[in-house]
């Protein structure tokens, strides 16, 4: 994927009601790299909460002038005391999902939130940069957006966005006409229920057919709702785990492949998670929780080779042909 065009895919401009934002300078396809940015600084050395503001002040003072300007021009959700800490709280991103260390990426911080985002950010540890990819088709001039929230129906999303980021979301989804918003909320409540059921390990163990059917249903909800972010590869990974638990090498390999492809769109080929999933696609039995039962035992060679898309889908989800 990735375009060969070397002019930046974004430009910064004022967005009505949101301060500054980034918009696409050309049309983008799913998986196109929008930008990659090294941290202006990280919070790795800030280990003492009592002196956080003071130590952070020293870091900011030590930055080159344009870096200081970039930092101080970022939005502060909670102006008043401890201005440096609050700018970091308002704009920082962790260095990967499991990291306690935060970092400031002045450009990435300009990407505003949308509940149905068109881009995904991720920390690329190998290159030491935050990368942002388009996750769906984006038109020239369209605002580029990330999701800051955990999803859920509009009331939940808007409540947590207000509480953590201090804004009332007026994105495309939150400002849908009432009837359409209710339909979207119903889908997202259904998605939460399905997600919870899929995460129940006893069900995965004892009712795997139903757990797999729930994965397919959830995928349908995401499609209808226009969700293209990391929720897609996470769902493929859930389906992979169900197949893996029951020794189904063929489906485990197929879901690992789908997961790697969906992750590549969100995070790029170099993503560690993509590399991990490619390894599981080749050797699903290397998964630590492989084969608790032999219920669906199969070999990778059992992946149907000449099936059309429809027949493949039916096989994949264990539906009658
Ligand atoms: Zn919204």
From TrEMBL:
Domain SET spans what residues?
Answer: 1-149
Q: Which PROSITE patterns match?
A: SET
> Could you tell me which CDD domains the record lists for this protein?
SET_SMYD
Gene3D superfamilies linked: SET domain
Judging by the UniProt lineage, the source's domain of life is: Eukaryota
Read off the PANTHER family from this record. Answer: SET DOMAIN-CONTAINING PROTEIN 5
Q: What is the protein name stated in its UniProt record?
A: SET domain-containing protein
């Amino acid at each position: 994927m990735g375009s060969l065009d070397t002019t930046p895919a974004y430009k910064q401009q004022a967005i009505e009601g949101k301060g500054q934002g980034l918009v696409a300078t050309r049309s983008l396809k799913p998986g196109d790299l929008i930008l990659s940015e090294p941290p202006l600084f990280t919070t790795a050395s800030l280990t003492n909460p009592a002196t956080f503001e003071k130590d952070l002040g020293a870091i900011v003072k030590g930055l080159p002038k344009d870096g200081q300007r970039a930092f101080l021009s970022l939005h502060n959700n909670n102006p008043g005391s401890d201005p440096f800490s609050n700018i970091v709280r308002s704009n920082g991103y962790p260095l990967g999902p499991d990291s306690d260390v935060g970092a400031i990426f002045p450009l990435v911080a300009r990407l505003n939130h949308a509940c149905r985002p068109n881009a995904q950010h991720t920390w690329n540890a190998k290159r030491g940069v935050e990368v942002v990819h388009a996750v769906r088709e984006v038109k020239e001039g369209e605002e580029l957006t990330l999701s800051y929230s955990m999803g859920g129906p509009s009331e939940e999303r808007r409540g947590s966005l207000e509480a953590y980021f201090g804004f009332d979301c007026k994105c495309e989804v939150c400002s849908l006409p009432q009837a359409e918003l209710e339909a979207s909320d119903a889908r997202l409540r259904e998605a939460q229920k399905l997600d919870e059921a899929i995460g129940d390990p006893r069900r995965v163990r004892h009712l795997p057919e139903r757990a797999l059917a729930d994965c397919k249903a959830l995928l349908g909800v995401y499609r209808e709702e226009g969700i293209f972010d990391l929720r897609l590869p996470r769902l493929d990974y859930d389906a992979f785990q169900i197949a893996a638990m029951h020794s189904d090498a063929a489906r485990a390999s197929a879901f690992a492949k789908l997961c790697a492809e969906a992750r590549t769109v969100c995070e790029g080929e170099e993503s560690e998670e993509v590399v991990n999933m490619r390894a599981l696609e080749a050797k699903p039995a290397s998964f630590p929780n492989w084969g608790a039962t032999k219920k669906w035992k199969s070999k990778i060679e059992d992946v149907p080779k000449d099936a059309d898309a429809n027949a493949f889908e039916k096989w994949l989800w264990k539906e009658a042909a």
